[in-house]
Amino acid sequence: MTLRIARDVLLLVAKRPSRLVKWRLQTNLFRGRAPMSDRIESHLKEDRRFPPSSEFSAHARIRSHAEYTSRHAASLEDPATFWREETQDLVFREPWKTFSEWELPHAKFFVGAKLNVSESCLDRHLATSARNRAAIVFEGEPGDTRTLTYFELHREVVRFSAALLDLGVLPGDRVAIYMGMIPEAAIAMLACARIGATHSVVFGGFSADALRDRINDLGATVLVTQDGAWRRGNVVPLKQMADKALLETPTIRHVVVYERIGTKLAPFSLKEGRDHQWDMLLARTPSAESLAKAKGPEAFDSEHPLFVLYTSGSTGKPKGVLHTSAGYLVSAHVTSKYVFDLKDSDLYWCTADVGWVTGHSYIVYGPLSNGASCLMYEGAPNFPDAGRFWNIIEKHGVTILYTAPTAIRAFIRWGDEWPEKHDLSSLRLLGSVGEPINPEAWTWYHRVVGKGKCPIVDTWWQTETGSIMLTTLPGACFSKPGSTGLPMFGVDIEVVKDRGEACAPNEGGKLVIKRPWPSMARTLYGDDARFKESYWSQMPGVYFTGDGARRDEDGYFWVTGRIDDVLNVAGHRIGTAEIESALVSHPSVAEAAAVGRPDDLKGQALVVFVTLKTGQPADKAMKAKLAEHIDREIGKFARPDEVRFADALPKTRSGKIMRRLLKEIASGSLETKGDTSTLEDLSVLAKLRANDDEA
Ligand code: WT7
User: What's the CATH code of the domain at 500?
Assistant: First the structure.
């Protein structure tokens, strides 16, 4: 979600600078032009408390701090009993024998259980009042709407499952999904779950090359895509992009194409024998065997792989985070229920894209396993105008909104007049995810969107954690703007120093998770050694999150951001090494270093320092070429905000690029702070700074 929003915001910003400057002066939003570092300071000093209203608490699933504390304690002291109680409404064909098995870094949960994840999300609702309730309320970008009840969603998933079975998809096969935000993306995911295939959704903003690499890493045999997706009035030609990838993906046997746009605006070709139109495929009568299997699906082992989702790490190669069945489902289910306080009467809207983990856990598996009604929106937040989100909330009567700080900051810039034009009184709960929310954005969200009456849940988690780890339960705990709150059930989390000893209250350190939890990533697809290395080797016996944090005297966590070589640009995770390896693959580039610079809107902006090969012109045209190269290698969202040319990069004597120094230069700090004694050639620094204006 976030990066798409960021892209849109940036385009808007670029087009209307004068208006933005005006807003900025009017709202005094960022306290004049205080640099980000000062705002972080203010963030750290923030300590206001916002308790839920007694009315909200009275109807909440968890109603008091004491109740939260006792449930949290129970979840750690006697997990087997706790989770047995909390999973009563999920469908297990065979109950588990052991709650967990743990041999670092490998965990198993609900050992011995057999289940079909899709049954908990679909079939179980057919015998209840949820049968005719909206499962997905879809709003297309052009304004078209479509509602699928649980009955209808189940029916569509069964049909698509049968079609996949007829294509020969077997349990454990990998299916890549390259789609936009349409119900068919969720249908495809659930159909994979139903037949035991492992899905891997590749965000529609990724380039053909990125799609190709993911398909090949997985050895996927089927690709599900669509003709095109609407994006701010334009069509993103997904099938055409997929066709480029498919030139170099030898394992793909079948491609299914859903027609969202129609051939007039999104023409595409079908390769005979390989490509199938979704509607035609489903119109075929499935074999009796496939239909029977789709209707009464097989139960799989609790540790059967459910999906792989690629995310960025500290090397150039993305990590294929693998999640399995029971533990993931249980955690997504329980966190959705309590964090969003889901009720049958809610219309819940998570603005994330299904291409990210938030879309997996909090559009598909979590809410649907609770029988919730979920809004799904296809397009941009500023199409046809900056009031689109508020228009959607009013039109459909959304009660819970879960979005990202980068989006909130964009809304602030666009002006209060947009939300004020709409009736937002249906809202009762707000959520935030993806990056630390600055108190100014929190306060605006609370006042202008929530009208001072909606609790805000700031939720900290990661692709690897699978589900929300830190938050404040909305009817039970007060929130503090900028703090991501307290541990969720089953989460044993701490801030520690380098050698693993606990930090004192308010002392900054590394955020680690001290024992395995049910929705934890099980491995990195095809690279178990990297799994251990990345997460379980930094400090003995604990999971290292890659984030820095402190915990205050109330036990509330304050996450300060990544402390590894990963950036968070507009709530999207970008590995510096990924950008660097993309850049050095360009024939003109000798060396590159990517760093983050604080940014008002995106949290962090991406700055790259590039040393060109001898004789290559360091000019504007080259910058444009390098940006296009990133578009091609990764996707438009990873485009650097700034490209700087350098004769050489600052290095230590052992040849390591000194990123810390580059970061300081990128953020415009004039003096070099810290130790530079290991810097190989000090003149390099002076030259880099002198190059500042040339950009
Ligand atoms: C990283 C994980 C969680 C789903 C979306 C991102 C940052 C995420 C928060 C928050 C402060 C946050 C962390 C984390 N992050 N939520 N509420 N407060 N930081 O998933 O792409 O795996 O990124 O996002 O740095 O490590 P992801």
Answer: 2.30.38.10
